[in-house]
TrEMBL record:
Xref: HAMAP family: MurA (MF_00111)
Record's keyword annotation contains RNA-binding: no
Domain Enolpyruvate transferase: 7-411
Chief location of this protein within or outside the cell: cytoplasm
Keywords: Cell cycle, Cell division, Cell shape, Cell wall biogenesis/degradation, Cytoplasm, Peptidoglycan synthesis, Pyruvate, Transferase
Protein's recorded name: UDP-N-acetylglucosamine 1-carboxyvinyltransferase
Localization annotation: Cytoplasm
Pfam families listed in its UniProt record: EPSP_synthase (PF00275)
Pathway(s) of this molecule: Cell wall biogenesis; peptidoglycan biosynthesis
Source organism: Hydrogenophaga bisanensis
Length: 422
């Protein structure tokens, strides 16, 4: 099993290219199921989750290929498609639930395994099921599978008003894709506004979908009978960019993130500035400079445009060595503090009380062997390892490979002492 060996204490200098967003690319790969014409995506990141999603599409009969362009991938769901997502292929990736909407919308039936258990919380899919039922689908859960079909006599989902009990990102994406091919108008109330949603909507519009209001909490979709092929560039990964910003802020140094979108990261950038980092941004770049000890920042995770839960662990690593005491409140997932015990093995002082972690900044961390428990927890341990004295070994980095495109190569290029070992 791969591990990372990090020797801490180096400042970071240079440039990093930010990859395409995992959380935009995953629904966009699923959207290729909506048409029998070829679709080209560019800027698809090289990640384990993308490879898993590609295997799932291959299994269904979609022809997939990579090409020379940066992150270029071609998809063609023009032949016979088996609308089934087996457990073996979906167990490691929750985003596999995103094939349900497109399969139902185009083929009228689907059999999709419930996604596997996830360390950060229970993560039910009840809202996905309820919303698609409101669009006329019959869905039963049996033997661990969602078995969905249209009632006899119907060939398309029907437009509906869907108001979810909470804001759900992949739920909104499933409904968008399903509604694009439905009969009539769908209105999504309480829709997620994360930048990955408008990016998916832009792709669907390029395929011929009629969508308005994406990027707000109310989205209108006028269903069309068929969608055509398109070419779409995956938006830059705001969480990868935020992770590098926190890494440089914590270690000190000056780094430019190419393709970074500061407008998608305002909540994180505001906190980094308050902490003392200097951040400038322009068209397609973000520059971060940091020296000396930062001031700890309290924050609370909320839906976009609030502070993203996917940046909580990385910012907490920074708070561990900042001056002062901070509170970190996690409101989205009930079990997203698993990095805390590992950060404490490096010398961090943290106490958890329900949804709140109280972090007392210390002057230094000291390297140790730690275990990654989930994707962003892994990134927080890497940041902590970069600032800790001596050697840190981060074990189980298959979590990191799910969502970061060559993280150690990018960090080494800006001066980090980090290597992958087996
Ligand atoms: C592939 C992808 O894009 N993943 C992101 C997506 O996950 P994902 O879309 O799975 O997260 P949601 O926005 O759906 O989850 C928000 C909350 O709603 C709950 N919920 C959700 C759906 C449902 O049917 N029932 C239910 O109870 C969840 O358990 C969670 O507590 O948004 C999360 C919140 O920004 C991010 O952390 C993930 O990185
Ligand atoms: C939780 C995450 O991803 P997923 O929803 O794919 O598990 C994440 O990207 O931080």
């Amino acid at each position: 099993m791969d591990k990372l060996r990090i020797t801490g204490g180096r400042t970071l200098h240079g440039e990093v290219e930010i990859s395409g967003a995992k959380n935009a690319a995953l629904p966009e790969l699923c959207a290729t199921l909506l048409t029998d014409e070829p679709v080209t995506l560019t800027n698809v990141p090289r990640l384990r989750d993308i490879a898993t999603m590609r295997s799932l599409l291959d299994h269904m009969g979609v022809r997939t290929a990579t090409h020379g362009e940066r992150g270029g991938m071609d998809f063609h769901a023009g032949g016979p498609i088996t609308p089934e997502a087996p457990y073996e292929l979906v167990k490691t990736m929750r985003a596999s639930v995103l094939v349900l909407g497109p399969l139902l919308a185009r083929f009228g039936h689907a059999r999709v395994s419930l996604p596997g258990g996830c360390a950060i919380g229970a993560r039910p899919v009840d809202q996905h099921i309820k919303g698609l039922q409101a669009m006329g689908a019959d869905i039963v859960v049996e033997h661990g599978y969602m078995v969905a079909r249209l009632p006899s006599g119907r060939s398309r989902l029907k437009g509906a008003r869907i108001a979810t009990d909470m804001v759900t990102v992949t739920g909104t994406e499933n409904f968008l894709m399903a509604a694009a091919l439905a009969d009539g108008e769908t209105v999504l109330e309480n829709a997620a506004q994360e930048p990955e949603i408008p990016d998916l909507a832009e792709m669907l519009i390029a395929m011929g979908a009629k969508i308005e209001g994406h990027g707000t909490s109310r989205i209108h979709v006028q269903g069309v009978e068929r969608l055509h092929g398109c070419r779409h560039q995956v938006v830059a990964d705001r969480i990868e960019a935020g992770t590098f910003l926190c890494a440089v802020a914590a270690t000190g140094g000056e780094v430019v993130l190419r393709h970074g979108r500061a407008d998608h990261l305002e909540a994180v950038i505001d906190k980094l500035r308050e902490a003392g980092a200097v951040i400038e941004a322009g068209e397609g770049f973000i520059r971060v400079r940091s020296e000396g000890r930062l001031k700890a920042q309290s924050f609370r995770t909320t839906e976009y445009p609030g502070f993203p839960t996917d940046m909580q662990a990385q910012f907490m690593a920074l708070n561990c060595i900042a001056q002062g005491t901070s509170t970190v409140t996690e409101t989205i997932f009930e079990n997203r503090f698993m990095h805390v015990s590992e950060l404490m093995r490096l010398g961090a002082r943290i106490q958890i009380d329900g949804k709140v972690a109280v972090v007392e900044g210390v002057e230094r961390l000291s390297g140790a062997t730690v275990m990654a428990t989930d994707l962003r927890a892994s990134a927080s341990l890497v940041i902590a390892g970069l600032v800790a004295d001596g050697e840190t070994i981060v074990d189980r980095i298959y979590h990191l490979d799910r969502g970061y495109d060559q993280m150690e190569t990018k960090l080494r290029a800006i001066g980090a002492d980090i290597e992958r070992i087996r």
